[in-house]
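Query structure, 159 tokens:
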């Protein structure tokens, strides 16, 4: 323990090499995904959550979309951990999951694909697109933190 104080090196030295924008982006992905699940479970309650899962399992297409949503959730978490370790595929994986989510939510909300498990309600198409942009704005900020700052780009290109 005294060696730590003499050398001035802490236990977290390996983490200090992570640029702040990447650390913030990875932490934000994990926090927002986990918090959204907790808030959804709290809002729905046990019975409504069970009903949602039961309704999702009524048909094959609903079941596949529900399973895909769970896979995307875990892929996003895995990408967040990977990008904080400096792997370039982590940020590109996150970009692909966001593109898939936005595409599905857009076509489901506009009524072009059924079932509309994860859709946005609105009176007009412009209102739906506006609401979708507002919902995905935090993810856009995370993507900006991963791709725009020079420290983030250098962090991913050194590996």
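Result returned for the query:
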């Amino acid at each position: 323990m005294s060696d730590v104080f003499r050398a001035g090196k802490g236990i977290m030295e390996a983490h200090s090499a992570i640029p702040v924008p990447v650390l913030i982006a990875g932490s934000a992905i994990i926090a927002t995904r986990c918090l959204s699940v907790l808030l959804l479970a709290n809002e729905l309650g046990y019975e409504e959550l069970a009903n949602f899962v039961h309704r999702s399992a009524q048909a094959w297409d609903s079941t596949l979309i529900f399973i895909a949503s769970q896979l995307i959730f875990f892929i996003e978490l895995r990408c967040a951990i990977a990008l904080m370790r400096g792997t370039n595929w982590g940020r590109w994986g996150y970009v692909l999951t966001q593109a898939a989510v936005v595409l599905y939510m857009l076509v489901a909300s506009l009524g072009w694909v059924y079932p509309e498990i994860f859709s946005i309600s609105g009176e007009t198409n412009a209102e739906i697109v506006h609401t979708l942009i507002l919902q995905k704005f935090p993810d856009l900020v995370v993507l900006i933190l991963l791709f725009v700052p020079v420290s983030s780009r250098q962090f991913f290109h050194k590996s």
